[in-house]
Amino acid sequence: MISLLIDTSNRPLSVALNKNCICLAEINTTVKKTHSATVMVYINQLFKMTGYNKKNIDRIIVARGPGSYTGVRIGVTVAKTLAYALRVPLYSVSSLAVIASSSNRTGILVPMFDGRRGNVYSAAYQVDQSEMSIRVTEGYRSLDALSEKLEEYPKQQSLLDGDEKFSEKIESYLHTVPRISTIERYVTMIREEDVHSMVPEYLKLSEAEKNWMERTQK
């Protein structure tokens, strides 16, 4: 099985081609470039590197969020368009689970990234070499609220991009950026989607949505 995997949910970008869950080629970047201008360029480079083409793809896996509103939309839109055009199944995975799988660590792993206004997107997973399960649900919360939820896991490991501004507030962490090629071994984290009805999973309302709700509820 050939899988095309896409994650544009935050500043890092990760795309990969896997064969039977083993990475054939991947491109991972953390440079500040517009994902809409680069994601298809990088996907085409994967095909050139491997000798495969779009017709060889058996399924597509995309990070559904949370993350940057624009970033998540770009990845989901590209994945849905390709899945529809190629008539292949579409699957999704949490962007936080991708970070957890990318660390190559086991135990209680706590991926997080900046949600602004003093909050983070975060979760906690129990991870071993082939299984991952949720211990703290994926959510948008303050660091204090996250700390309270992690009190029963004293040996947890925080995973985040060391370039994030809020990293200064984390006493100890492992610098981790997403490599979506690593997620296929955790089959319970991957869910099948309907190509027509799938929507990004932001975990919080945008400012525009908040303003609209405030106006309509008056």
TrEMBL record:
Gene3D superfamilies: 3.30.420.200, 3.30.420.40. Keywords: Acyltransferase, Transferase. It is an enzyme of class 2 (transferase). InterPro entries: ATPase_NBD, Gcp-like_dom, T6A_TsaB. Its EC number is 2.3.1.234. Residues 31-147 form the Gcp-like domain. GO terms for molecular function: tRNA N(6)-L-threonylcarbamoyladenine synthase activity. SUPFAM superfamilies: Actin-like ATPase domain. Pfam families: TsaD (PF00814). CDD domains: ASKHA_NBD_TsaB. This is tRNA (Adenosine(37)-N6)-threonylcarbamoyltransferase complex dimerization subunit type 1 TsaB. It comes from Salinicoccus sesuvii.
